[in-house]
């Protein structure tokens, strides 16, 4: 059993990060996917995770969205534990109720969009606000239409996902996630399933969010140029831990570690 | 004795058989209504994280599916009273046939629920929906269209199995045909009419189910 007393019940002091991974380990059976990960994401910061497949980068987002449980360590969101909760002055694994309370601060977009196929674009966006936040239909419709307008999908609001292209579906998915007003947005390879010619329409929407909104964002992508343009920081993952991290110019322009150099040159050749 | 069809006798017994057809339809409808609801309960119970519950329900479904319907009908009707559960033929029949088909329908639902991708569940979690909201709003509506064909098959199946209720004295079509036969010593006309009536209902029903399936898919905006 892990000694939980090494982790604070909540983060205090100035400059509390929006997200903190503290000593987080994730295993699938004997395979260690993430090994004692420490990672902070500041409020309003855009952090991009890159790395070879199998390096654990998607797992980082999935743990934060509570789609995966963790084996060791604690994840904090806005200073409060996400994966755990306080009970009699000690941290214990989070209950479903605690997870539901904490999860409301996080939104996520997926590689395969995962829109609800039996609902129109507008209904997809209204579903969360109406059902989960208990908002009136009128209010939810207003908010959803504003967001569909923001992602350039207002004209298609009454279409079902099956009638939309991949790029259009992903833009609706971004609007759907934003409709819940999360503090942290997670983008998990959101352009990987798209045809090359429509990647731009999705990256432009994300670029817009970075420029105009003070969202904290964590992104996994293979679009190196895009990551370099919009990120405040790049984390290069290798074998379940952060091999190197830094400002985009430094990491892409002057990588220090050999594995980073190898990865970046391999990506450059392929691209 | 040769083939000897009597038309006047046919017309004479037809109203009585049609009246019994109504009972058959009621029996099939009531049994199916029980099976539809109970089947969903059985299917959802097998998806809970409680291992013991899942195991018991799984074994129950297998048990029901592996034993004959007629045995289950006899059991409810004749063995029930020994445990102080005394019920009319109708009630016993509905319980037995509803229970039997709920086991089959639970398997149809299970297939439908499993056909909804993992990504849909993850989207529900990302929108912070409760399991209940996820099921009622997202998962079940998508599980229905792939389950409809199987559900339709069992609707016709339960209709065709209602004659088994005649063995405990439910006055449905078969029971009435038997009664006519033993009163008049003529079995050709009543049994033939029973066959024709079953055919006349089953065939259009199967066609209607196919049309309904297409309609539901379109209504839900699915391909």
UniProtKB/TrEMBL annotation, chain A:
One of its GO terms (molecular function) is ABC-type amino acid transporter activity. Keywords: Amino-acid transport, ATP-binding, Cell membrane, Membrane, Nucleotide-binding, Transport. It is found in: Cell membrane. PROSITE patterns: ABC_TRANSPORTER_1, ABC_TRANSPORTER_2. One of its GO terms (cellular component) is plasma membrane. It comes from the Bacteria. It is a peripheral membrane protein. It holds the Pfam family ABC_tran. Residues 19-264 form the ABC transporter domain. The keyword DNA-binding does not apply. Belongs to the ABC transporter superfamily. This is Polar amino acid transport system ATP-binding protein. The lineage of its organism: Bacteria, Pseudomonadati, Pseudomonadota, Alphaproteobacteria, Rhodobacterales.
UniProtKB/TrEMBL annotation, chain B:
It comes from Celeribacter baekdonensis. Keywords: Amino-acid transport, Cell membrane, Membrane, Transmembrane, Transmembrane helix, Transport. It is a multi-pass membrane protein. This is Polar amino acid transport system permease protein. The lineage of its organism: Bacteria, Pseudomonadati, Pseudomonadota, Alphaproteobacteria, Rhodobacterales. GO terms for biological process: amino acid transport. GO terms for cellular component: ATP-binding cassette (ABC) transporter complex. Residues 21-209 form the ABC transmembrane type-1 domain. PANTHER family: L-CYSTINE TRANSPORT SYSTEM PERMEASE PROTEIN TCYL (PTHR30614:SF0), MEMBRANE COMPONENT OF AMINO ACID ABC TRANSPORTER (PTHR30614).
